[in-house]
Amino acid sequence: MMRFNQLAFSLLAGASTLAMIPAANAQDASTDNSAAAPAAETGVPANSADATQAIVVTGSRVIQNGNNMPTPVTVVSTEQLLQTTPSNVQDGLQALPVLSGSGPAVQPGNSSQNSAAHTLNLRNVGTTRTLVLFDGRRIAPTSPDGQVNADLAPSMLLQRVDIVTGGASAVYGSDAVTGVVNFVVDQNFNGLKVNAQAGISQLGDAASQRLGIAGGTRLFGGRGHIEGSYEYYNSPGVDTKLTRKWGARVYTVQGKGDDNLPYRLIQDTRLSSTSYYGLIKAGANATDPTNPLADMVFRQNGVLSPFQHGTPIVGADGTTIAGVESGGDGAFYDKSSLYSLFKSHHVFGRFDFDVTDSVHFYVEGVGMWSHNRNNHQNNELPRNTTMSVDNAFLPAEYRDIMTAAGLSTFNYTKMFEDFPVLQPDTHTRETLVTTGFSGDLGRFKWDVSYLFQDNVQKTANNANLDNQKLAAALDAVTDPSTGDVVCNVTLTNPGLYPGCVPLNVFGPTSESQDAINYVVTKTQFRAHTRMHDVGGSISGSPFSTWAGEANFALSGEWRRLEYDLVSDAQPIAADCTGLRYNCSASTLKYISNVRGNRTPVSQTVKEVAIEGDVPLLKDVPFFQSLSVNGAFRYTDYNTSGSVETWKAGVDWHINDSITLRGTRSRDIRAPNLNDLFAPQLINPAGTSDLHTGVVGQAPFISESNPDLKPEVAYTWTAGIVLQPTFIPHFSMSVDWYKIVINNAITGIAGWDSAIQQICENSNGTSSYCDLIHRPGPFSDRSPANTADAYYSRPQNAQVLKTDGIDFEMNYRTDLAGGSLSLRNLVSYQPHLTTVQFPGAPQQEAADTGGQAKWRGTSFLDYTFGDFSVDIQERWHVSTDWNSNHSLVYLNGRLPAAAWTNLTFTANIKPFQYFISVSNLFNKQPTPFGNIGGSSGVPGLFGGYVSGDDTLGRYFTMGVRLRL
Length: 963
Description:
Blueprint: H1 2-15, E1 73-77, H2 78-84, H3 89-94, E2 130-134, E3 137-138, E4 158-164, H4 169-172, E5 179-185, E6 191-201, E7 208-219, E8 224-235, H5 245-248, E9 252-254, E10 264-266, E11 269-275, E12 279-280, E13 296-300, E14 303-306, E15 309-311, E16 324-328, E17 330-331, E18 341-354, E19 359-373, E20 385-388, H6 396-404, E21 409-413, E22 424-441, E23 444-465, H7 467-474, E24 476-478, E25 485-487, H8 488-492, H9 513-519, E26 520-545, E27 548-567, E28 594-595, E29 598-620, E30 623-637, E31 641-653, E32 658-669, H10 673-677, E33 681-688, E34 695-702, E35 711-722, E36 730-749, H11 753-761, E37 772-773, E38 789-815, E39 818-835, E40 842-844, E41 854-864, E42 867-876, E43 897-908, E44 911-918, E45 954-962
Parallel strand pairs: 2-5, 34-38
Antiparallel strand pairs: 1-4, 2-3, 4-5, 6-7, 6-45, 7-8, 8-18, 9-10, 11-16, 11-17, 12-13, 12-21, 13-14, 15-16, 18-19, 19-22, 20-21, 22-23, 23-26, 24-25, 26-27, 27-29, 28-33, 29-30, 30-31, 31-32, 32-35, 33-34, 35-36, 36-38, 37-38, 38-39, 39-40, 39-41, 41-42, 42-43, 43-44, 44-45
């Protein structure tokens, strides 16, 4: 079957005349949005080589003809995206090579508060560096982490999606560093359309249902127009990845990356430091007596047996990787979701009215209500949990053995199977309303608008652990007056923990439901973001040159972003009053996913911008036309000061067949309210502590930084567009780019192995050591001094550089009585380098898992009468394992991979029936693992290459009605 998959890809690429060779990055210059029509790029007609009608494209306020854009802009019709990815437009965008790093973040173990949201990431440079627009106006962050949920755009009435693949901050403002994604509504839809579809995986899970209805009509004798849509989507998700072969094999990468112990892929990874049965460990520190029962587990409730170790991971010199084995009694994180539950309701409405022949009024609104839930990970006891030898649930024979050895306490750990899962559960409400006027004023056009956006996100952790109650419940004693097992604190401090239920952890199913209910609690927070945006512009041609009209636009904007957060579970230290064990100054009240309150904060932005496009030559030898384009924007942030951005570009049409273009720009991303003022966010995660050599778990605490400044990027682009007259209906473009950011905002994290190494090299004196909290002094390297908390704070510290070439090719021809359309999109990104902070080594992310140098997507559509077949082929070449290419890996390079989507459509008017198969050949993801923290949490993160299809073959059937 794999051979057939490769053959299908070869035939598809070969028919495109560019087998495994880059295609063009072209833009649609036609208003034909038929399903079979592949969109093309600026200057390249999509549906025919002689199309003359152009569209106003994203990327400029003055250029009215997409053929004359100096900045590369890829336009994709929604029909084409839905033909090969019928789930929704946003899923279809992820298949494009320039957006291969986009969300949703549905990978196993994701702890995001909205893990099903579609976030867009151009060139893998970061979602916050891609500006998302709706009908040309920015969408505000829709979550506390500053990301934009592209699901806000209404699929039913979208006409196309414009993707600007060059810096555009001078035209649109902050965040347009790598480019812009603009969702463009069909503002003149008339009629009725209904979509209904359902999908299910080959294994019978991941069922989904989608229903949409849209209508539009003219009003008031044609002076007005109204349209609207409603969309519903439901998918219960997949609660466990163990249903997939790759998930059940629990892959991680283990080793040290040297010749003695190279990194290698390990299957059936288990943690030797914990068990589902409960594991007695060695003493708390080097001075404790030897525990005669160490390395024993309660395979049966209350009955000890030896811990069955798996295969150790050993180097050539006998060195063993601590904490992990292959197989055995050790535990792994087996509770995280494969895909998140997601349910949404989406409404859209728009009203237009010509007040006069030269003044136009409009108002439109979007509302979205969604529910998202995913299983993050198992609840578990901390790896250094202290238990009393006199614990009332411990059988007397074991108590006597340890007491005879001089022990009063012992170390114990357990991963819970009967406890509910740590489970972020999010409900969101997103509202966007825009109103304004536009009109003509002689040779000039003007517009004024007001936009209001309101986003409320309520996130609960349905099964958080209260560390105070856990410590109280673990200290079980016998009440001398009644003989009942009770919490020790009930006897010593009766008023402190009323209702305390002692917790028995000595066995695989030893916990009572009452005890579980006592220590597990629901915590939640509500985040509220708002944006008010007032803008206006005037554009037109104040003068002409001999080569044509010069066009200019003057625009201004004022916006205010507001953010607040209320939490019922603060990231505070536990109160250890009355607790004998498992509570110290570093113990947090809750184990996971809690945020502090954020009193209302705001950011006010004032901007003024000018853009011009001036023709210089026309209809002279080698210059069918030549024009220059420039833009300048001044922006003032009340939080981080003022900044200037600019862009200069040239568009040179040599003749009808050859166009050259290029740009140079200065772009910015200003720190958002999340970067500046977000409260602490705490989540537990797996760690590898270089200081003590312990592989374990600790809270990861993310913080904000009010002293951040805007990051500044410099971008170059240069390209060529080819439309050879000797090949009708063929077009191709090639665009080179380079982006350099010298003060990128990045989180400096204490859990990063490079940060830990700097701290080690400084013998504890580096300021980076402040990001790692230990219970004892730095000089203590015993397991007892393993880090119990890690911090991450954003700083203007990173240097980021990337360059590459985008290709696109489009071709259409008549074939065997039908119509054949081909489109190839390929991205070549040989460099994506970062220096995380001054003094850190340069990391090269290109050519690594999830970031292949060559990535491509090909579309084939063949229409014959009322029937059509659509094929989408997505592929990437082989990659290295890690951005540090000096590390030694035993397994060689990760192989190339390809996925095929196939759709059959029958048009029996007024209905259109379709059946689509995603991942037609059931291609499994490439086994993969990250080094560092992920290697210490088997089953939680990783196991596959990011971007690979993890669900498997998926069937979708549906019907569309058009009236």
